[in-house]
Design a protein that fits this description.
CATH topology of the largest domain: Rossmann fold
Number of helices: 19
Distance between the termini: 66 Å
Structural class: alpha/beta
Mean pLDDT: 93
Helix content: 40-55%
Strand order of the largest sheet: 1-2-3-5-4-6-7-10-11
Order of helices and strands: HEEEEHEHHHEHEHHHEEHHHHHHHHEHEH
Number of domains: 2
CATH architecture of the largest domain: 3-Layer(aba) Sandwich
């Protein structure tokens, strides 16, 4: 009881801190890098889709230097919200969430997080990483969104696609820099410092960290560079900083796709209906790369039918993006081999109706080009592809999954090399949970094992049959996360034993 009283006093102190910073004049001179960041309470963002949780949230902006290496430079504002816990007696330490991407919209993730029970016993804190939709500045690139809508009708690795993509990124970069944005300051180390400043500005003594995908890279960087006040760290769909190097997409694709094919072979009904599925995939990638299909398909979320180009590279990237559900992959490959590309064509058409402005492509490229690509050659990407999928056409393997023409884009984006400072393994004794899905084709579970080696008090769980961002898809994973947040050194992982992938879709012959 005495401990609870101390926690309540700390929480009250945090509220007093919020009240104190609110008294600072909103229009004061930009804060130099040496001065503390400040949190300015304000209205919650008006999100594109309703987020009911914001009705009870405390929102505002964190003001921080754009570039901490330049004292006296301009400040930027990062949108943040505190979502209250469901429990009437929540734990003292909140959970701060680090979203994927980089450049992924954070506030849209709130309903997913609350549906997963993340705020059941803890207040949930979200903050848009620098450059996101509700920040100032906003590093959206509508030029790139428009290109992506057009890309569905182009060859995945075609010269025309490359030219149009580079033009879109050049236009975005020129526009952002003309507004005075220092693109070199939008990186993971600065992101991590922002979260450290947020904890201090809110007056929170200790908190828990939950990050997924790029958010796991950010969380590990944060743990390495600002370990103060961190009670526990949960990592979902893990990409550790030392592994976030451009060719990493190939071993992840190999692991995730291979797990789907192996799971089909392990289910008698799937194996009997779709024998030798691996050969079917290899044949279809090669066939489509030699003779692309150009079907018309209606985007899954609605809209007019569009013509798409389905070649080998497009087929691979549809698989990696999980726009065809893993349970449907064997049926989709079988249908494709029999002359029916509808499932894959509809998945390719999904990008024809982009959510313009939702992704901060400026942050995406500033991180990718400063941290993931330096020192990487085109031959290194190709070699990794050949190792992952021997025999596939080089035109497919020359582009890293989900990141086509990335080296060319980075020559256009032109930000400073930060790889040496960023590609560092995190060594820590802070209790850490690592969760991976066996069907994850974006961040293979092998990366979580690599990260766990230097985390001396870590727990690693692998959830069968689940793709990217595990907790929202798996009640078991959500239970493990809740148990970890309650007892970081002794989480209950018992529900994992005996889990198996769901049955695959079986279609008539």
């Amino acid at each position: 009881m005495a401990q609870h009283t101390r926690h309540a006093a700390a929480a009250a102190a945090a509220l007093l801190c919020l009240t104190a910073v609110a008294a600072s004049p909103a229009g004061q001179t930009p804060t130099p890098a040496a001065a503390p960041a400040r949190f300015v309470p304000g209205p919650c963002p008006k999100t594109a889709e309703p987020v009911p949780e914001l009705a009870k949230a405390r929102c505002g902006f964190l003001e921080v230097p754009e570039n901490r290496a330049r004292p006296g430079g301009r400040t930027i504002r990062l949108a943040a919200a505190v979502i209250p816990a469901v429990s009437a007696k929540p734990a003292a330490e909140p959970v701060v969430f680090m979203a994927g991407g980089p450049g992924g919209e954070t506030f849209d993730d709130i309903p997913i997080l609350t549906a997963s029970g993340v705020n059941r016993d803890h207040d949930l804190i979200v903050m848009a990483q620098r450059g996101n939709r509700y920040d100032r500045p906003n590093l959206a690139c509508p030029e790139v969104d428009r290109f992506n809508a057009r890309y569905v009708g182009l060859g995945y690795d075609s010269a025309q696609a490359k030219s149009l993509m580079l033009t879109a990124f050049r236009q975005c970069r020129d526009r952002l820099t003309a507004d005075g944005t220092d693109l070199g300051a939008y990186n993971t180390l600065e992101n991590a410092a922002d979260f450290a400043d947020l904890r201090t500005a809110l007056g929170i003594p200790r908190w828990n960290v939950y990050g997924y995908s790029y958010g796991s890279d950010l969380a590990l960087t944060y743990l390495r560079t600002h370990p103060e006040g961190i009670r526990a760290v949960a990592l979902d769909s893990v990409t550790p900083p030392q592994s976030a190097v451009l060719p990493w997409g190939w071993p992840s694709a190999q692991e995730g796709i291979g797990a789907i094919l192996d799971a089909c072979a392990a289910q008698p009904a799937c194996k009997n209906r779709y024998p030798d599925l691996r050969r079917t995939l290899d044949e279809q990638v090669s066939r489509l790369e030699a003779e692309p299909l150009t079907p018309t398909a209606r985007p899954p979320k609605g809209g007019a039918p569009v013509k798409v180009v389905l070649d080998g590279g497009a087929l691979l990237n549809v698989l990696v993006a999980n726009t065809v559900k893993p349970a449907d992959v064997p049926a989709a490959l079988d249908e494709l081999a029999r002359g029916n590309p509808e499932r894959f064509a509809r998945a390719r058409a999904a990008d024809a109706v982009p959510a313009t402005g939702m992704t901060a492509h400026g942050l995406t490229q500033s991180v990718a080009c400063a941290e993931w690509t330096p020192g990487v050659s085109g031959s290194a990407v190709l070699d990794a592809g050949r190792k992952a999928f021997p025999g596939w056409p080089d035109t497919v393997l020359a582009q890293a999954p989900q990141l086509p023409f990335q080296l060319d884009v980075c020559r256009t984006w032109n930000v400073p090399d930060r790889a040496a400072r960023q590609r560092v393994a995190t060594v820590s004794s802070v209790p850490t949970l690592l969760i991976s899905g066996t069907f994850d084709q974006k961040t293979g579970s092998g990366f979580a094992e690599d990260a766990a080696r230097t985390l001396s008090r870590s727990t690693f769980v692998r959830i069968p049959g689940i793709t990217h961002w595990v907790v929202p898809q798996s009640p078991c994973a959500a239970s493990v996360l809740a148990s970890f947040l309650a007892r970081p050194t002794d989480p209950d992982t018992g529900c994992v034993a005996g889990l198996k992938p769901a049955p695959f879709t079986i279609t008539p012959k």
